[in-house]
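stage 2 :: seqdesign
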């Protein structure tokens, strides 16, 4: 009898979850979602068979400018018409600002600045935000130009008949190269060769972290958390990044105070090290 009751209530609970979270209702169109996965399998996002841009285009052709899309338990209303988008941004007081992106990022990097709130966010923001002001970017313009020239030189060495099908990836490599030099004075070597062939340990770790993020951003939270905890390759990649960052901090600490004071105006790692407290309680 007890087993029968457990099965009965389990079935009722599944029906409730299905009706509450995975049922298409109302005037807004969309594809009926799968249980637990929503539209992730149907769209090809979960297995990575389609980029998100192609998914949006195909769904727009099927359902119009406004439609529903499920990512696991979370239902999104996707808006394509630029006039509607502008209206939403001009009337943010009428529309809730979702926190799903922060929730997903916190699974991967819980200590990142965008996942912090209160005094901790203000402290981190006071250190990092000034480095992204216009005058700080201009002071690093030579690094940006050098990286861009390296990428253009690679393209020029190719045959004029060669069709570049990985421009997005190469531009991402350029961004990594520039960020590594500006933030950490470290050459990630992402432009010297294809990222897939790069033997730089830190670059490979960063690449895997980015690949993991593409997966967890669409997967249900419980699957994302389990995947990261049970994935030894992710754990090794994270340990590698932490080891390199700790080495960078230690190397920066060997620099003179005058050198750090001057470089913190344009270097993130120098700014972070200069802000370290000697009092652990104050640091916390």
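stage 2 :: out
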């Amino acid at each position: 009898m007890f087993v029968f009751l457990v099965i009965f209530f389990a079935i009722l609970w599944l029906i409730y979850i299905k009706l509450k979270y995975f049922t298409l209702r109302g005037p807004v169109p969309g594809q009926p979602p799968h249980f637990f996965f929503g539209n992730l399998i149907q769209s090809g996002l979960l297995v990575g068979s389609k980029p998100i841009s192609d998914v949006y285009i195909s769904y727009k052709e099927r359902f119009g400018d406004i439609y529903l899309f499920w990512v696991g338990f979370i239902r999104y209303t996707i808006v394509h018409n630029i006039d509607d988008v502008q209206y939403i941004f001009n009337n943010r007081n009428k529309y809730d600002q979702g926190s799903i992106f922060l929730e997903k990022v916190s699974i991967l990097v819980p200590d990142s600045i965008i996942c912090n709130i209160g005094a901790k966010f203000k402290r981190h923001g006071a250190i990092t935000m000034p480095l992204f002001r216009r005058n700080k970017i201009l002071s690093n313009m030579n690094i940006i130009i050098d990286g861009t020239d390296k990428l253009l030189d690679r393209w020029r060495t190719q045959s004029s008949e060669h069709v570049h099908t990985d421009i997005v990836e190469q531009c991402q490599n350029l961004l990594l190269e520039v960020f590594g030099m500006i933030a950490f004075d470290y050459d990630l070597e992402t432009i010297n060769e294809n990222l897939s062939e790069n033997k730089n340990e830190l670059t490979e770790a960063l690449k895997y972290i980015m690949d993991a993020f593409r997966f967890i951003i669409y997967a249900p939270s419980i699957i994302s958390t389990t995947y990261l905890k049970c994935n030894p390759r992710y754990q090794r990649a994270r340990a590698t990044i932490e080891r390199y960052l700790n080495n960078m901090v230690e190397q920066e600490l060997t620099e003179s105070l005058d050198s750090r004071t001057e470089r913190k105006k344009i270097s993130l790692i120098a700014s972070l090290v200069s802000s370290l407290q000697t009092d652990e309680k104050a640091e916390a």
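stage 3 :: structure notes
- The two ends are 55 Å apart (CA to CA).
- Residues 113 and 120 are 8 Å apart (CA to CA).
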